[in-house]
Design brief:
It contains nine helices and two strands, in the order αααααααααββ. The protein is an all-alpha fold and about 210 residues long. It has a two-stranded antiparallel ribbon. Helix 1 packs antiparallel against helix 3 and helix 4 runs parallel beside helix 7.
Length: about 210
């Protein structure tokens, strides 16, 4: 009888699987109840439309950069995520960032009311103090990582970032411009490096 080869699973695959479990848990186990609750219904139309995206991105960044599954969320990690990671990485305009605090404060309040997350009450209170910082940091390009700078510049120049051919042409034209005008003309000149995932999902900053 031939011996069956053992299947190996990479750490990246394990992390992706764990992240998907976190997303499913938040969007379905917690999210479905939230979306029928008075907390959700009291949000504005724009806030309701953005709510799934905000909850999903929050879950992703809390897990991928701070190593926190939903049951382990706390106010310190939430602050780091919303004040630093969101403005650095989310390639969105003010209409998105205006919704972050209302949506998450309502979501955390719902979790607290139903005793679903032990730190939800503290997070619901804390996030209400962060709106101005989130708006200021998200609108300041000095706080944007390299990936966000590129996406925001391309959109500003009328490029559909979902069109791979258009993006490739934009990159080629941009590279030619930098070659002609020198490094100081680069959108990445003196840009902060993006946060990256370190061991055990902890956020680190890539060195220059």
């Amino acid at each position: 009888m031939k011996q069956r080869k053992k299947r190996t699973v990479s750490s990246e695959q394990l992390s992706e699987s764990a992240l998907n479990e976190c997303l499913d848990f938040v969007i379905f186990d917690w999210g479905e109840g939230f979306c029928t609750s008075p907390r959700f219904l009291n949000l504005s139309e724009d806030e309701r439309l953005q709510s799934e995206n905000i909850a999903g991105f929050f879950t992703d960044m809390m897990f991928s950069y701070l190593g926190r599954v939903p049951q382990e969320w706390d106010a310190d990690a939430m602050r780091e995520c919303c004040v630093h990671l969101f403005p650095e990485k989310m390639s969105e305009g003010p209409e998105f960032f205006r919704c972050v605090v209302p949506v998450l404060s309502a979501f955390f309040a719902y979790l607290d009311e139903h005793h679903l997350q032990k730190n939800a009450a503290v997070m619901a209170r804390e996030i209400k103090t962060l709106h101005e910082r989130i708006m200021e940091r998200s609108s300041n390009p000095d706080n944007w990582g390299m990936s966000k700078r590129f996406v925001m510049a391309a959109r500003s120049d009328g490029i559909d970032v979902m069109d791979s051919k258009a993006v490739q042409k934009y990159i080629e034209a941009y590279n030619q411009k930098v070659l002609r005008e020198g490094p100081a003309s680069s959108m990445f000149y003196n840009a902060p490096h993006d946060s990256v995932i370190g061991p055990k999902g902890k956020k680190t900053t890539r060195k220059r």
